[in-house]
Amino acid sequence: MSLTFCPKVCYISYMIRICLIFFFLIHFLGVSQQAEYVNFKTAKVDILSIDTASKDIEGHVIYEFEILKDIDSIFLDANNFQSIKYILDGGYSDSLYNGKQLIVKHPFKSNTIHKLDVVYKTTPTKAMYFIDWDNDFVTSSDSDSDQNCIEKLQIWTQGQGKYTSNWLPSIDDMNDKIEFDLSITFDKNYEVVANGNLTNKQINDSTVTWHYDMQKPMSSYLVALAIGKYDKKVTYSKRGVPLEMYYYPEDSLKFEPTYRYTKQVFDFLEEEIGVPYPWQNYKMVPVKDFLYAGMENTSLNIYSDAFVVDSIAFVDKNFVNINAHELAHQWFGDLVTETSGTHHWLQEGFATYYALLAERDIFGEDYYYWRLYEYTQELLEQDRVGQSTSLLDPKSSSTTFYKKGAWFLHLLREKVGDEAFKTAVKNYLLKHQFKNVETNDFISEVEKTSDKDLSAFVERWLIKKEFMYDETIESLKKSTFIQEYLMVDCEVKTSKCETYLASWISDEAKSKVVLQNSELITSKSFKNPLKVRQAIAQSLTEIPSELKEDYESLLSDKSYITIEIALFNLWRNFPGERRRYLDKTKNIQGFNDKNVRTLWLTLALITEDYEPEMKKVYFDELTNYTSSKYGFEVRQNAIQYLNQIKACNDDCKTNLKQATTHHNWRFSKFAKALLESQ
Ligand SMILES: [Zn+2]
Q: Rounded to the nearest whole angstrom, what is the distance from the C-alpha of residue 579 to the centroid of ligand 1?
C-alpha cells in the first residue's frame, strides 16, 4: 500500500499549516499450521445483503479444499460474527464457533476434496467501512445550499492490517492463496466493484447482483470491494488489458489530470518487469476518507480521493506515484506474496523502486535521482535519531521498508548490471508465481544470473541496521544534476551565490539557494520557473517593499501551494492591501482538502473591514467544513483554523468530538490531541 499523504511537496505556510506525513506499519506474524494440512482452492462468495442502516451483512460462501495430510478439524477465521453455520459436503452440519474461528470437526483424510458451505451474518466494525450513511443530510429532503457539499455514500474494504475475516469467513494467513469469486447484491443505483472480471449484472427489482470472477488465487488480505456512485472510462494497455478508471460523476473535469500517464505507467511496468500483468484487468477507484493513499487489492487499486486532482493541483500533488506503486504490487505482493513480515520489504521495497522507475520513464533521469536523494535524506534522519532498522526486521519503520528497500534494489542493480538484475526478477516471479516468497528466493536468483556472491552486500544492506549513507551518495554522484545540487551551497553567502539565481543551474539547486538564504532574492529571481518561485514564496516571509509587486505576482501562479503561502504572507506583511489580496483569491478552492479556501475564509473573517455583511456567511461556511459531509482532510483544515482564531462554536465542537471516533486513525488522533490541549 502507499502511506504517504503529502508526496514530494508538503504544504507549508508558517505557523498555520502543518504538513502531516503519516506512516503506518503493517506486519504480519506467524504462519499457521493449517496450510500444511489443507489447501483451500476456491471460494464462491455471495454477499446476499448489505443493510446500510444497521451495517449488517448476510453472506454465503462455498469453499472447495483439498486435504494434504490427515487432520481431525479445520478452521476459517471469522471475527466477531453474529451467526455462522456450515454444511460439510452437503450433509454434516454444525456451528462450532468461538467468536474468532469457525471450527469444522471431521476426520479428514489426505488426498480428499471437500466442499464447505457457510452462511453467516455479521456487523463488521473494521475492514469494511460505511461512509456517510449515518449522516442526517443523507435523508433530509431540504437540499443543501452548499454547492460544494461532497457527501459520498460509499462502502469500501481494507484487508491489509485489518483482516478480511471481519466481513468474510476466510483465512487470514497470507500463505493460503484462494481463487475468490465475489457476487454482491446491492441497491441498483450504485456501482459495485470487486476483484477480477465483471461477468454478469443480474437485475432484480430494486437491486442488482454483480458477479465478479477471478481466475487465479490470492491471499485474503487482497480481497476487496468498493460501492459508490461512479462513472468510468476504460482504456486498454498495449497488450490489451482493460484499465478501468472510476471517478465521481461531478469530477469529470478532473478525470484527465487524475489519470494522466496511466497507460504509459502500465505499459512501462509490464515491459520493465518482463512478466505479463498477472490478472484480467486493472481497476482504479477513488474513495472518501480512505485509511492510506492507496491499496493494491488484486486487480483493484482503491485509493484516497485526495489524489483526484485538476491540472493546477497536478503540479504539486498527483496520482502518478501512488498508481505506479499499487500497480507494481500487482506483481510484487499480489503475484508473489511474503511468507511473513520478515520479508515485507519484498513487497514495499519493490513497489517503491518500480514506481520510481515508472516515474523516471515519465519525468526523466534527474527526477529519479532527486527522489532517491530525498529518500537518502529521510533515511539519514532516521539514522541520526538512532532509529535505523534492519530490512529483515518485521517491526521496521515504513521508511526502512519503502525507502531503504528501494535503495537496496537500486544499488543491487548497479552492482550486477541491468541484464542480470532483470533476468533474476523475471525468474523469481515466474518460479514463485501465485505462491509465497522469502528474501532468499530473490537473492538466490540474482546470484545465479550474476554469478556473484552477494552475501557481504546482503549483510550490509538487508541485515545490518545502519544506513550506508556514503554508498548512496557515491551512487548519487553518477548524476551531474545531483553533483550540481550538492555543490551549490549558500548557507554562507559567497560572490558566486549572487549569480546562481540567474544562471542555468537546476530548479532544485536554485530552490536550495533561495531556501538557504532569502537575502539573495531580487526582482530578477522571480523570473524563474514555478518551483523556484514556490521556494521564494516559502523563503521570503518578511517581504521587502521593493519586492512587493513581484511577490504579489505569486498569487497568479498555477500552484495551490504557492497561492496559499503567498496569500498568507502578503496578508501578514501588507495590512493596507488585505482587501485586494482577498478579492483576488476569492474563488480559489485549492486541493481537495480546500487548502486555499479554508485559509481564505479564515483571513476574510479576521480582516476587520472586509465585507462585514458577509461575515456570518463565511463563518457558517468554514464551520460547515468541520462536518462529516466533508472528507477528513477538509475537516481537519477547518477545525485547525477555527481553533486558531478561537471561533470553534458548538457545532464545530460537536464535529470535533465526533472526529475522535472517526475510522481514520490519523484524523481521530488529531482530534483527540486537540481536545486534550484545550
Ligand atoms: Zn505498498
A: 46
Is the pLDDT reported for residue 347 higher than 50? yes
CATH number at residue 656: 1.25.10
Q: Give the Å distance between the CA of 328 and the centre of ligand 1.
A: 9
Which of 229, 261, 289 terminates a domain? The answer is: 289
Which residues lie closer than 8 Å to 520 by C-beta, 6 or more apart? 490, 493, 497, 498, 500, 501, 513, 514
Q: Is residue 2 included in any domain, yes or no?
A: no
Q: What is the pTM of this model?
A: 0.93
Give the whole-angstrom CA distance, residue 592 versus residue 632.
10
Residue 528 three-state SS? coil
Q: State the residue range of the domain holding 549.
A: 483-676
The rounded Å distance from CA 1 to ligand 1 centre is: 3
Instruction: Kindly report each contact of residues 491-498 with a partner whose C-beta sits within 8 Å and lies 24 or more positions away, as own/partner.
Output: 491/516, 491/517, 493/517, 493/519, 493/520
Q: Residue 461 falls within a domain, yes or no?
A: no
Q: What is the pLDDT of residue 678?
A: 82
Distance CA 298, CA 288 (A): 20
| Confidence (pLDDT) at 6 | 43
Q: Tell me the H-state helices in 254-393.
A: 255-259, 262-273, 311-314, 320-329, 345-363, 365-384
Residue 267: CB partners within 8 Å, gap ≥ 6?
237, 238, 239
Q: Is residue 344 assigned to a domain?
A: no
Picking from 256, 289, 322, the residue at the C-terminal end of a domain is 289
CB 36 within 8 A of CB 587: no
- Residue 20: the pLDDT is 26
**The CATH number of the domain where 77 resides is what?**
2.60.40.1730
Q: What's the pLDDT band for 136 if we cut at 50, 70, 90?
A: low
With left for phi above 0 and alpha for psi between -120 and 50, is residue 22 left, alpha or beta? Answer: beta
* pLDDT at site 506: 96
Other C-beta atoms lying within 10 Å of the C-beta of residue 555: 17
CA of 643 to the centre of ligand 1 (A): 35
Q: How far apart are CA 678 and CA 673, in angstroms?
A: 9
Give the helix/strand (H/E) hosting 286: strand 282-287
* Separation of alpha carbons 412 and 204, rounded Å: 56
> Is pLDDT at 24 greater than 60 in this prediction?
no
Q: What pLDDT is attached to residue 150?
A: 60
Question: Taking the CA atoms of the chain, what radius of gyration do you get in angstroms?
Answer: 27
How many CB atoms sit inside 10 A of residue 503's CB?
A: 11
Question: What is the rounded distance in angstroms from the CA atom of residue 355 to the CA atom of residue 372?
Answer: 12
The number of domains in the chain is: 2
Residue 135 confidence class, pLDDT cut points 50, 70, 90: confident
d(Cα 286, Cα 215) in Å, to the nearest integer? 25
| Strands 38-50 vs 57-67: parallel, antiparallel or unpaired | antiparallel
CA dist list (Å): 81 to 61, 160, 322, 325, 455: 14, 19, 34, 34, 48
pLDDT tens digits for range 398-414: 999 999 999 999 999 99
Q: Please, which residues bridge with residue 233 across strands?
A: 245
Residue 514 has pLDDT above 80, yes or no: yes
Task: Compute, in angstroms, the gap from residue 326 CA to the centroid of ligand 1.
Answer: 6
| Distance between Cα 159 and ligand 1 center (Å) | 13
Residue with cell 508526496: 7
Please name which of 587, 661, 674 lies closest in space to residue 289, comparing C-alpha atoms: 661
Asked whether residue 111 is assigned to any structural domain, the reply reads yes
- At 644, list the grid cell: 486558531
Q: What is the Å distance from ligand 1's center to 351 Cα? A: 6
- Which residues have beta carbons under 5 A from ligand 1 (an ion)? 1, 348, 351
Read off the C-alpha cell for 611.
465585507
Rounded to the nearest angstrom, the distance between the alpha carbon of 621 and the centre of ligand 1 is 37
